[in-house]
Amino acid sequence: MTGRLLRPRLGVVGGLGPLATADFYRKTIDAVPAENDADHISMAILSVPQIPDRSAAIREGSDRPLPWLLEAVEMLNSLNVEIIAIACNTAHHWYDALSAGSRAEIVHIADAAIDELHRRYKGNRAAVMATRGTLRSGFYQKRLEEAGFTCRNPAAPTFQNAVDDAIRQVKLGNLEQAKDACASAFARCRDEGLEAVILACTELPVAAEDVVPEGMLVVDASRALALTCVQRLRNPDRMRNTA
User: What NCBIfam families does this protein's entry cite (predicted)?
Assistant: First the structure.
């Protein structure tokens, strides 16, 4: 329940992981041209690091995280939020079930990222740096194809191993090691002539800081989600009708 004064407009399912959620929060702040505190978006961040591993569940064919995610969405809806962001790419594997059970619109992180790619990139192929679960789910590949792009990741195992390591090191708080691993993944993309990369795990923007190769177009899905949420809340005409 909410009072007459305290009503968050944006609800965030976070903690997946905590540092990635903090990064998303910072990006919502950066997206607002604020002149004072009150100009910023009111929000409720529900940080639940105990939600079972999303990538492992997808690879095992399990829906183990879904009840947790449904409860998180239900809790944010009880606060009467206008829209919901899930600060985890892999959790969007269950987007349809979560969206069906939500009064508030849940903004899809892949849609936000691909919209940005479409605005900024004139080519037709992009690499998707993501968890193995996100790649197994296929929702990025499907949406890229629908938007006229091809998902093209380096085939060498060293690429995905480097992505996995970058994500793991951010979760461990080892940011220098995370940057080294992310730089290695970028190098594999550059070696194969890939000019555009989507950072499709919310840990990866933390790892990518200061290591993006010159001339490579990188779409930060977390930043794209933050921008989309802020734009919709500042321009109600762009929001889905949830009445």
Answer: asp_race (TIGR00035)
